[in-house]
Amino acid sequence: MSERMWLSCGLLATALALAGCTIPCHKGYEKALENGVQCDLPTPCRNRVHLFMVHGLTPSTNTGLNALRLRLGENGFAKVGIGELYLAWWVKSEIECIRQNDPDARFVLLGYDYGAGVALSLARDLTAKGTAVDAVVLLDPKGCTPEPCGVHTLLITNGMGTDRVPHSARVVVPDATHFTLPAHPTTVTAVADLLRNVAERHCEPEVEEVPVPGTPPEWDFLTDRAGPTRSIGTQAAARPVAKPPAVAATPPVPVATKR
User: How far is CA 4 from CA 10, 17, 55, 248, in A?
Assistant: First the structure.
């Protein structure tokens, strides 16, 4: 095959990969907007959690990671991305970009099939460079090393030969196959619960803004200032300075003089 043919195939594969990611991304975001109101977590808390999923060698189907992303959108989580094995560099660059714009963002990695090893490697590299990874999810992992990644690891499997993979928690889905495992209801529930727990741990309570009594609505921005806020059109009265108590004068002592 000629060099031009290889280049054409590479460009075509890239275009198909990007097209396959963009459409489900929008669908997942729409699902999150439609169903997020039913979630008991505030939207800012849910949107702080970012999930990056790495695909393996298993062909993409309507029961794979794309379907899992749509199901997570129905649970109110929209910040979900999918990348192939060779796009691991993209995950790192995306996380770095997100951290620059949102230092409070939280990250969860998911690896399916041979993508599980890539997710574990990414978790080790990111934590070594100071980027906190809250959890790693392994879906029916293949080709993983027995070395733990140092963060909470959730193993989801149908129970076929994954006992040696290091994990912190395990969910077995016996009625799922390797192809139907990602979108299985048990898998969706386990991943959604994990994302919800991460969001809850780092969710700050909403601050209720109470307007200062007597302040016109157009001057509400003054309530951000520390200390009491005086009403518009008034001025601070000078506080009288207390004078020290008067000291009684001591009468002069008569001095006797000689004649």
Answer: 10, 20, 28, 108
User: The pTM is what?
Assistant: 0.67
* Contact present, 69 and 24 (Cβ < 8 Å): yes
Residue with tokens 């990056």: 52
Which residues, 6+ apart, have CB-to-CB distance to 199 below 8 Å? 41, 45, 46, 48, 49, 106
3-class DSSP state for residue 158? Answer: coil
Give the β-pairing of 135-139 and 153-157. Answer: parallel
Query: CA of 172: how far to CAs of 100, 149, 184, 186, 196, in Å?
Result: 37, 21, 11, 9, 20
Instruction: Dump pLDDT digits (tens) for 60-88.
Output: 677 789 899 988 988 889 889 888 877 77
Q: How do residues 134-146 score in pLDDT, each as one tens digit?
A: 999 999 998 877 7
Residues in the chain: 259
Q: What is the pLDDT of residues 19-56, one digit of tens each?
A: 334 334 555 555 555 555 456 777 888 889 999 999 88
CA–CA gap between residue 259 and residue 250 (Å, rounded): 27
Backbone angles phi, psi at 170, to 5 degrees: -140, 135
Complete domains list, the chain, with CATH: 15-201 (3.40.50.1820)
